[in-house]
Amino acid sequence: MPIQWFPGHMAKARRQLVERLPLVDIVVEVADARVPAASRNPDLTALLKGKEHLLVLNKADLADPVYTRTWLKVLRERGLAVIDFSAKRDGREKLLQYIKERGARAGWRRHGATRVLVAGIPNVGKSAVINRLVGRRSARVGARPGVTRGQQWLRVSAELELLDTPGLLPPKLVSEEIGYKLAAVGAIRPEVLPTEEVALWLADRLLKFKPESLTEAYATDTYEPLEVISCVARRRGLYLPGGRLDLERAAAVLLHEFQEGRLGRITLEVPEEKGVAE
Ligand SMILES: Nc1nc2c(ncn2[C@@H]2O[C@H](COP(=O)(O)OP(=O)(O)OP(=O)(O)O)[C@@H](O)[C@H]2O)c(=O)[nH]1
Ligand SMILES: [Mg+2]
Fold first, then answer.
1. Which one of 31, 117, 195, 259 is CB 3.0 to 4.6 Å from 24, fit for a cystine?
2. What DSSP designation does 56 have?
3. What is the pLDDT of residue 3?
4. What is the mean pLDDT of the chain?
C-alpha cells in the first residue's frame, strides 16, 4: 500500500481525538450505509471502548433500504446502538432523540451542555450530519475526503454541543477488499488506488448486486466488468483521439455516477459476506 494511506495530518487528528475523548459525554460514530462494516475504523472502535457510543449509518438515501434494515438488525444483535440516517433528508428529531436517550443512560456527567464528539472515516458525512443537527451550514462539507482539517465545536442549543473532527482511517489497510469499498464510496483519495481497478471492482459488485442499475444507466448487456466500462464509454461518448474508447475517463465516470447516487440506491456489502462479520 502506498505511504499516502495514512497522511501526517491524520496522525495528528488521532492524537487530538484521544485528548478530547475524556471531555465528551457520548461519541457519535458516522459510517456509510452503503458499506456499513468497511466504513468503520477498527482503530477508532478500540479507542472508544467503554465510551457511550452511537453508530449512525449515514447516506441511507443512497443505500438499498432492504439491506439497511438487515444491517441494523445484525448490528443491534451484536449489541450496538445504531440508527440509519440521511443528512440530505430530515431525520434531525430522530437523531436528537437517540443522542438524548444514550446520554440519559450515561447519566450526564456535567451540569452544562451535553458534549458530543462526532467521529468516523473521511467523507462519510460527519460535517453534514452536524449541519443537519445545528439546522444550518456551520461546518464545512465537501464531496472529497479530508475536508475537515481540525476539530471544531458547534452549538445546537444551550443543552447540546457537537465536536466535528477530521476523518480518521485505520493506520493500516485491513484488506484490499476494504480498500476497494472505501475507494468506491469516496472515503479514500483517488490517488491511493488506481481508478480503473476500483471501477472494475465496482462494476463486478454492481453486476452481482444490482445488474439492472447498469442496464438502465449504460445499456449494458454483459457480465464482464471490463465490458461494463466500455459500455459506459460508449454511452457517454468518451473516445480518445483516433476513435478508441477512453476507458480511463469511463472508469472515473462510473465511480462518480455511483457516488452521486445516479445508479440508484445500492449497498455494496452484506453482513453474511466472507470477511465482513466482526
Ligand atoms: N446523498 C447524501 N450525501 C451526503 C450525506 N451526507 C453527506 N453527504 C455528502 O457527502 C460528502 C461528504 O460530506 P462531509 O460532511 O464533508 O463528510 P465528512 O465526513 O465531514 O468528511 P471529512 O471532513 O472529509 O472527513 C458531501 O458531498 C456531502 O454533501 C447524505 O446523507 N446523503
Ligand atoms: Mg468533515
1. 117
2. E
3. 45
4. 92
Q: For residues 39 and 66, is the Cβ–Cβ distance under 8 A?
A: no
Residue 275 in contact with residue 175, Cβ under 8 Å?
yes
User: Of 77, 89, 79, whose CA–CA distance to 33 is shortest?
Assistant: 89
159 and 222 both lie in a single domain = no
Residues 10, 105, single domain; the answer is: yes
pTM: 0.94
pLDDT, tens digit, for every residue of 34-83? 999 999 999 999 999 989 999 999 999 999 999 999 999 999 999 999 99
Q: Which residue has the cell 431525520?
A: 91
pLDDT band at 112 (very low <50, low <70, confident <90, very high): confident
Instruction: Indicate the number of domains in the chain.
Output: 2
Q: Give the pLDDT score at 102.
A: 80
d(CA 88, CA 125): 10
- The C-alpha cell at 122 is 473521511
* Structural domain for 229, as ranges: 194-259
Let me know if residue 157 belongs to a domain: yes
- Closest ligand 1 atom to 85 CA: 31
Q: Which carries the bigger pLDDT value, residue 110 or residue 180?
A: 180
Are 30 and 102 members of one domain? yes
- 134 and 225 co-located in one domain: no
Enumerate residues with CB within 5 Å of ligand 2 (an ion): 126-127, 147-148
User: Comparing C-alpha atoms, which of 30, 252, 249 is closest to residue 148?
Assistant: 30
CA dihedral (90, 28, 68, 144) in degrees, to 10, reads 80
User: Does the Cβ of 259 fall within 6 Å of ligand 1?
Assistant: no
